[in-house]
Design the sequence.
């Protein structure tokens, strides 16, 4: 079995956005809280008890729980809370790999002789996050990233679960197949149709059988995970392989173009601030039935120019409009992937920077840095609800 020789913690804040709202407003504590109006961005565990889930329509959520308190999102508050939590992470160990605004892997292999066993380290971490930041956090501990993440999911909310090295498969195999990374509704349905419902049943299949059922990549991936084979180390300071943003707003096709332009404006500014360039634009869609789809376009040369990347994104959106019109849409997202350093940008004639599209981008970036991101906007966004943009998770 290929596993890490050191313990790994997966730390995951519980119902993060909603927990921050309950922390900052005592009147919300113990009550069902929904963050976001048109679409649920987050729900407290009191709200989840009524069946409310992230990405659910706001009207449906209130039908399930009419007495829920709906609050607008405060991204600056969530960002500040996240930074405070990550300070605790990095004070615990220098080997921290952030997965998103509210979760991370921590390699604590070098700490047991100094601090104590992994369970003690995890317990102290939870206590510090609660005492110093005021938020509950769940921690899973295991020898692989995969199993640590599964452990934290099983322990939620506000829990701690340590999987002993000699009991890993005893813990993993009775769990439903949906606990395996990559098993969504479609894959789960295929396995269920064959009478396969637990991770242990997957593990008892030959790899060739799984490949014939799910395809080469998925079959090998799930066979490895079912045996807890996950050799990936915690990667501290890993550079992002993608930059993206998404907006949870159902829109007509006319409005979607304005939303798309606003998203691209924001992420290309972040791209240039990170001194990166990209070749591939990915359009992400969630339809009214909550199914998802992605479309991508790869450019010939890396670029950080807003105009070129917006043109690519618009081509993808135009191609998807017939499907959007028939199925409806609840989320639109854009990612810039296939990233490289900005010095890989192909210089194009003429070389007059004063008249290049990049000069305009640089000028707009400086204006927004000085006067705020809303100081300059597109005419198409004037008088429109800008919605809530949420950064996509890094790969």
Sequence:
């Amino acid at each position: 079995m290929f596993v890490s020789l050191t313990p790994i913690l997966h730390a995951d804040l519980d119902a993060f956005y909603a927990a921050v709202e309950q922390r900052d407003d005592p009147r919300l504590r113990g009550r069902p809280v929904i963050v976001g109006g048109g679409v649920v961005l987050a729900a407290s565990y009191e709200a989840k008890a009524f069946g409310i889930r992230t990405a659910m329509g706001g009207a449906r959520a209130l039908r399930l729980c009419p007495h829920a308190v709906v609050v607008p999102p405060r991204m600056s508050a969530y960002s500040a809370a996240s930074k405070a939590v990550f300070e605790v992470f990095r004070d615990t160990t220098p080997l921290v790999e952030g997965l998103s605004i509210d979760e991370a892997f921590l390699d604590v292999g070098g700490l047991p002789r100094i601090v104590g066993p992994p369970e003690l380290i995890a317990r102290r971490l939870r206590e510090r996050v609660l005492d110093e930041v005021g938020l509950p956090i769940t921690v899973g501990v295991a020898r692989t990233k995969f199993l640590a993440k599964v452990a934290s999911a099983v322990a939620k909310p506000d829990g701690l679960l340590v999987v002993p090295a000699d009991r890993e498969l005893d813990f993993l195999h009775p769990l439903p197949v949906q606990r395996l990374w990559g098993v969504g509704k479609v894959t789960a349905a295929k396995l269920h149709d064959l009478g396969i419902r637990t991770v242990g049943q997957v593990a008892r299949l030959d790899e060739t059988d799984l490949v014939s059922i799910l395809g080469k990549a998925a079959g090998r991936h799930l066979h490895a995970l079912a045996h807890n084979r996950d050799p990936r180390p915690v990667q501290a300071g890993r550079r992002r392989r993608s930059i993206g943003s998404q907006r949870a707003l159902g829109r007509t096709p006319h409005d979607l173009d304005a939303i798309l332009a606003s998203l691209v404006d924001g992420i290309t500014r972040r791209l240039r601030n990170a001194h990166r360039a990209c070749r591939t634009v990915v359009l992400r869609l969630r339809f009214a039935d909550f199914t998802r789809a992605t479309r991508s376009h790869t450019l010939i040369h890396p670029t950080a120019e807003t105009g070129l990347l917006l043109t690519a994104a618009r081509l993808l959106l135009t191609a998807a409009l017939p499907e959007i019109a028939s199925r409806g849409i609840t989320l639109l997202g854009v990612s810039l992937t296939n990233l490289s350093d900005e010095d890989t940008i192909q210089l194009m004639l003429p070389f007059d920077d004063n008249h290049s599209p990049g000069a305009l981008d640089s000028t707009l970036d400086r204006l927004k840095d000085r006067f705020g991101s809303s100081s300059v906007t597109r005419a198409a966004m004037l008088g429109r609800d800008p919605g809530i943009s949420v950064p996509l998770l890094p790969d």
